[in-house]
Write a structure and sequence with these properties.
The structure holds 2 protein chains of 2 kinds. Chain A is an alpha/beta fold. Chain A has helices at about 80-90, 110-115, 135-140, 150-160, 160-165, 175-190, 205-220, 235-240, 260-265, 265-270, and strands spanning about 35, 45-50, 60-65, 70-75, 95-100, 105, 120-125, 195-200, 225-230, 245-250, 250-255. Chain A has a domain at about 30-120 and about 240-275: Rossmann fold (3-Layer(aba) Sandwich), CATH 3.40.50. In chain A, the strands form 2 sheets. A 6-stranded mixed sheet of chain A has the order 7-8-9-4-10-11, sandwiched between helices. In chain A, strands 1-6-5-2-3 form a 5-stranded antiparallel sheet, with helices on one face. In chain A, helix 7 links the parallel strand 8 and strand 9 (about 225-230). In chain A, helix 3 (about 135-140) packs parallel to helix 6 (about 175-190). By secondary structure, chain B is an all-alpha fold. Chain B contains 13 helices and 2 strands, in the order H-H-H-H-E-H-E-H-H-H-H-H-H-H-H. Chain B has helices spanning about 1-40, 45-65, 75-105, 110-130, 150-155, 165-190, 190-200, 200-205, 210-240, 240-260, 265-280, 285-290, 310-325, and strands at about 145, 165. Chain B has a two-stranded antiparallel sheet with strand order 1-2. In chain B, helix 1 (about 1-40) crosses helix 12 (about 285-290). The chains are: A alpha/beta, B mainly alpha.
């Protein structure tokens, strides 16, 4: 791990003295200022170049954007840097060039926590719930930064994901994969975000559950929240997308509306299996 | 009559002392388990944190006594307890600022924090001896007994006496209050829930706007309070000696692991399991057996399985057995 001797954990398997599993991975850093900037698109990561910590660059001049009322998806082969691009937009990456604009503000210098306060909701791909806490507590923690009454928002989430209402007092870790993803999305919605970012929301769930999740995501988008999403299932994702970004090796390979990309013979050939 | 005498003897020599001891261990184990769950390492300095908190409590007790301030039948130490807690909290926050914060910023792996806490342990160790010395201090005052053995015998006409020390009763009451407060705090308050969230998933807690430094701060404060309460109760019951507190670390860790590290409920259960086992195995059963068994079967010896000098062996045997057969502990903790 990045050559820091304090992070050398080799040979330590003794769970009776240290708690196993990952601690926090997000680096705590101070936020810089947010500056006003002219932009016509709601959220855009512009020509982003950067990588994790002091490591090599993973993204090269990559641009990702989503506008009001739209669903934008990032697709591409394994290791193309899809999730990395999303993390860059969310401030979890060390950016060496490029900027991130949200609602007419340059937020490139902000820490991830402060981006949440600015109205970005993020659902990580894994470890996106509090497993030992109940469903309702998960939602409550999602709304931690809010000081006002959260009950209406909670009701809205329950209306969107009725199964969560039935399981509200059950520990989130005991739910099925699809239900957990609903908890994860619900948790992010509790902040009443202005934009929702989903990192592979359908990873590891069955096809039926996947269809249901896609339906729910469309429903969220209909409430007016723009959605930026990374997806493995390129075809299905592009079908519901207003904008698609095909990434290859950390670069934008193809960009267009979902329909355009689905119709593009090169994209079909290389990424959608003909 | 013999049966009643046996029950009274058992209560007097085993159940009551073990329950009080168990409550003290449980409070200690709760502190250990909280640090393990939230800060992810085993805090070896916990025994000496207890000693430090108790030291401050004792100093304030003496001061109050010299001023003639007291609680009547209750020990003055209860009045001094909040000051002891404040002292321990001050020390722990200072330690966190000077020592632990650096390693957190480095994102150091937990095993390094374990070793760091060992260094902190030695420093606290010296600090306590420097302040109050190495000798045993008795600071319990007020009424010694709620029921004394002689009164009990006169009241009931039994041969066996039952003594209930006021420190034992106070231990149970204070421990119950502390545990109830802790569980209420963790399960019902916003800050408590944010601590559980942080323990569950640090990154997601951060993304939900929970401030990690604040969670760490509150954790140290709670641990300081638990450690001081546990240490003071133990000291009231059995006297305060720095070396004994250092040794207490062992049964406390055994209790936390037996219950399941990271599980507060487990820490309490573990505390009582360890306490009952220690007392039962080191108790000379001759008297109880004498009442229960026919004369021909009465044991000749003391019927004591282990000398009290070996009581730590008991906690360790239980620890080894639990780790071999149920490594997650009784309440499904995280030590796998």
């Amino acid at each position: 791990m990045s050559g820091n001797p304090y992070q050398e954990d080799r040979g330590n398997k003794d769970a009776s003295i240290t708690r196993p599993g990952l601690g926090g991975e997000i680096e705590h850093r101070e936020s810089g200022p947010a500056r006003a900037a002219a932009a016509d698109i709601f959220l855009v990561g512009e020509s982003m170049t950067g990588g994790y910590g002091k490591g090599p660059d993973i993204l090269h001049d990559c641009t990702i954007a989503v506008d009001r009322g739209e669903i934008a998806v990032i697709v591409g082969p394994n290791g193309a840097g899809k999730s990395t691009a999303m993390k860059a937009v969310f401030g979890m990456l060390n950016m060496r060039a490029g900027r991130v604009l949200l609602d007419g503000e340059d937020i490139t210098a902000l820490s991830p926590q402060d981006r949440v306060k600015k109205g970005m909701g993020f659902v990580p791909q894994v470890r996106n719930i509090f497993p030992s806490m109940t469903v309702s507590e998960n939602l409550e923690m999602g709304a931690f930064i809010r000081q006002d009454d959260i009950r209406t928002t909670m009701e809205q989430v329950y209306d969107l994901f009725p199964i969560l209402r039935d399981k509200r007092d059950q520990a989130a870790g005991e739910l099925s994969g699809g239900q957990r993803q609903q908890v994860a999305v619900g948790r992010a919605l509790m902040t009443q975000p202005k934009v929702l970012m989903l990192d592979e929301p359908t990873a590891g769930v069955s096809p039926i559950v996947m269809d249901e999740l896609f339906d729910r995501i469309i429903e969220v988008a209909r409430t007016g929240i723009p959605i930026l999403m990374v997806e493995q299932n390129a075809r299905q994702a592009l079908e519901i997308a207003d904008h698609g970004f095909v990434m290859v090796q950390g670069r934008n390979a193809h960009t267009g509306t979902g329909k355009e990309l689905l119709a593009d013979p090169v994209v079909r050939q290389s990424f959608l299996g003909g | 009559m013999d049966l009643l005498n046996a029950v009274v003897a058992l209560l007097n020599f085993v159940l009551i002392p073990a329950t009080a001891y168990g409550a003290q261990l449980a409070l200690g184990a709760l502190g250990v388990t909280l640090i393990y769950g939230i800060l992810r390492f085993s805090n070896f300095a916990h025994g000496d944190t207890m000693a430090f908190g108790t030291t401050i409590t004792i100093l304030f007790t003496w001061w109050f006594q010299s001023m003639g301030l007291g609680l009547g039948p209750l020990p003055t130490a209860l009045l001094a307890l909040p000051f002891g807690i404040a002292g321990a909290a001050f020390l722990m926050l200072g330690t966190d600022r000077v020592v632990y914060r650096f390693y957190r910023a480095q994102k150091a792996v937990p095993v390094i924090l374990v070793i760091v806490s060992m260094g902190v342990m030695f420093v606290y160790n010296g600090l306590v001896r420097f302040i109050i010395g190495v000798d045993e201090q008795r600071f319990a005052d007020g009424n010694r007994f709620i029921i004394s053995a002689r009164d009990f015998k006169e009241m009931t006409g039994l041969d066996e006496g039952l003594a209930l020390k006021s420190t034992q009763a106070i231990t149970l009451v204070v421990a119950a209050i502390a545990v109830a407060l802790l569980f209420w705090f963790l399960n019902k308050t916003r800050t408590g829930k944010s601590m559980r969230a942080f323990s569950d998933n640090e990154d997601l807690a951060l993304l939900s706007g929970i401030n990690p430094e604040r969670v760490v701060l509150v954790t140290w404060l709670i641990v300081a309070a638990l450690a001081t309460v546990a240490g003071t109760l133990y000291g009231l019951d059995k006297g305060f000696k720095p070396f004994v507190y250092f040794q207490l670390l062992l049964p406390i860790f055994a209790a936390a692991i037996v219950g399941g590290l990271g599980s507060p409920l487990g820490a309490i259960a573990g505390g009582f399991v360890i306490a009952y086992s220690e007392v039962m195995i080191t108790y000379a059963w001759k008297k109880v057996a004498g009442y229960l068994l026919p004369e021909s079967l009465e044991p000749d010896g003391l019927a004591q399985l282990l000398s009290t000098d070996y009581k730590f062996a008991v906690s360790f045997s239980i620890l080894v057995i639990v780790l071999l057969f149920k490594p997650t502990g009784l309440f499904k903790g995280q030590s796998v």
